[in-house]
Specification:
121 residues; mainly alpha; 2 domains; two-stranded parallel sheet; 5 helices; 2 strands
């Protein structure tokens, strides 16, 4: 993705926000076929919000171990937020950014790499 693309971050998740998120991704990569893997949240399941160049694959309910992002979140919580109180939302966001930046590519690959995913590359 180019450095000029900016995506807004929302603290709420619902079908409308999912629609706009998918639309932005679709428009950013109009010549690609996009496979978006989601957990089974209700706002991920409306086929009417999926752009033509995209398909949604939902993971089974109650199987967070199948979602590589869950392993990344666990690492972020362990490394950056274990036994810590922060004074403000800004401090939380700064800690989050620092923690993500400190994670090496090899760490992310090791934590989230599944044979089925790595075979795609």
């Amino acid at each position: 993705m180019t450095g000029n693309k900016i995506f807004a971050v929302s603290h709420k998740c619902d079908t409308i926000r999912m629609y706009y998120f998918l639309k932005m991704i679709s428009q950013a990569f109009p010549d690609d076929i996009i496979v978006h893997v989601c957990d089974s949240a209700s706002w991920h399941k409306n086929p009417e919000i999926v752009p033509d160049n995209m398909m949604i694959v939902n993971l089974p309910t109650g199987a967070p171990e199948m979602n590589p992002m869950e392993q990344i979140w666990r690492e972020i919580r362990t490394v950056g937020f274990s036994n810590v109180m922060l004074p403000s939302l800004a401090a939380v966001l700064n800690r989050f950014a620092e923690t993500v930046r400190s994670m090496s590519r090899d760490t992310v690959k090791c934590i989230s790499g599944r044979k089925s995913i790595l075979q795609c590359f």
